[in-house]
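Pasting two entries for a bug report.
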Amino acid sequence: MELWFSENHTPDVKLSLRLDRHLYSVQSDYQQIDVFESREFGRVLALDGNIMLTERDEFIYDEMMAHVPMAVHPGIRNVLVIGAGDGGVIKELTRYDRIESIDLVEMDPQVLDVCRKYLPGNACRLDDERVHIYTGNGLKFIRRCENKYDLIVVDSTDPFGPSEGLFTKEFYGNCYKALRDDGIMVNQQGSPFYAEDANAMQRSHKRIAETFPISRVFQAHIPTYAAGYWLFGFASKKYHPIDDLNKEAWNALGLKTRYYTTRLHVGAFYLPAFLEEFLKDVE
């Protein structure tokens, strides 16, 4: 008998992966957590039936979330990461010696435990001495912070259910307050292709653009995410993601990447016409 996992992208579209094994399944206090072994994409982490990452393509998402802001802001020392309990973004950020401290706020402690056990390639730097892990609500955590961070990375699930509060005007306002005068916020914005996802992305971008003086959207192509096309938000009090990109300084670091380059960095902010038009409506 064949074993398949399917994620519904719309009522009429789904992505299906052939599996070898269902390695783990639990209903935590917050969500359904599953880990699968797939033939094409390796191990897969799913939350509430939605793919969060696969071993095959996780590097795309994690590199774009981490390296885009790090190549723009030369003074990032203190970082807040909300979500990202799988450890992938942490793994990329800890490659920078200049980062002194990373606070990680993960709502569900079982995600941390599961990823340490089943996805050690992702979770391998969660125990770095610069990483401080807090379990709890990211919205409540950031309310207590002011002028503290150079970079905030919001690596949340989609704006439905447990993570809905991380897409509100209040949350983005608290991020603004928690950042220093030259701080950057990067967040995942979802897919712009299917109607429900696109409308959620539009609402989120509108709230960010109303909060930060600089707000841009950039893109990446991730095979197992909805439509294979994913967006991220770049918001800053000072830095422009292209005008302030320091290619020479970043390339001099000699970091080996599989997706991100400084050439790709620039191109990622040049959006297709339909998306430019879509965002113009809320800017």
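Entry 2 (this is the one that rendered wrong in the viewer):
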Amino acid sequence: MKSMKAFLLALLLFAVTVTGCHFYIGSRESLNNPVFSTWSAEDKAKNREGLMANMNEGSIPVFGSSEFQHGTDTPYHPASVFAGNRFNPMLIGAGYYQSLSHAITLAAIEPSLVNRKAVLFISPQWFRRPGVVDQAFSSRFSETLYYGMLENEKLSEETRDYIRERAHKLLSVDSKTKERVIRHEKNVLEAQGNPAERLFDSLWDRFLEEKDRFMMTVLEISNGIGEGNGIREEDTEPDWDALMQQAETDGEQDNQNQFYINSDKYKQLEPYLPAKKDMNKDAVNGYQKSPEYDDLRCFLEVCRELEIEPMLVIVPVNGYYYDYTGFPKKAREKYYDNVRAVAAEYGAKVADFADQEYTKYFFEDRVHLGRKGWVMVNESLYQFYKKG
């Protein structure tokens, strides 16, 4: 009897919340806004409703990690470079997002893609020996995106099973979410749930969808993003030479330190430098053996099965800093070769910036893109959008 009362109470709470969210969101039209694409808020990457509602013929999903939150106050970030442009790259990611999460997201939002292209920024730090950490994966996990992936009938059973097995393992640190995920899989994929479980699962799914839309509206309001105004018409290529010259000038004025990184980042790092000298000299196999390589293959397999053309952006490390820590250059080169080899397996395009390790003002800090880095990467994104 107690369990039945709890179940009925849960149903009532679902109904009230869903109804409230639905009517509130119905009064707004904010989910069709080009500004949303280059918005770098972390919670955006979990929101299937927001991502799908803002995809249009000028959009390409661009997956990555913490680089999207760096340089946002500069004229070199995609939000500035492509402001007003018809091309509005849909930035998806924040710290702790890696290949597996992005494979799930791509499969979930695929029905909304007009341009059948996708970009994935590759970060060397993803390829540490453990691969993505379970707590990190769990913190970025979205049930609505995962359920959208499960429901994409274009995915092969083999690819879906790989994702499921990896997700189950990594969600072991969040038992409640894992239980809901497994219950949903039983109901959707195996039709094994009892009537009560199927009803609860259906209501929970609907609740999550409405919650996504509600939270996106709240986030847009709190971050000052106005009402949507559809697709932009302007399609003028940015002046890359002028941007690069500006980046050079800004860098010379600000980045005069041994690693050629932003002065404020260097000041934060400077007290710790003595302890970091040659600390990685024994990393002869650094970034060379990791489950991340198979997760990357999974992302590219999703692209293949869904007929999406992929481009990998190989983001390098700051060569000056990595040399300072003693991280072997040969190990870095082997890592770059490994990523190129995986890309070749799937015929993926590659925007390869491995040769920019020693380019001054390419980095904001030890690993994140800075002035010149963003200019070069933005140009590669635009050319992929225009020409493929």
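Dev reply: Rendering is fixed now. As a check, the viewer should reflect this: The longest strand covers residues 117-122.
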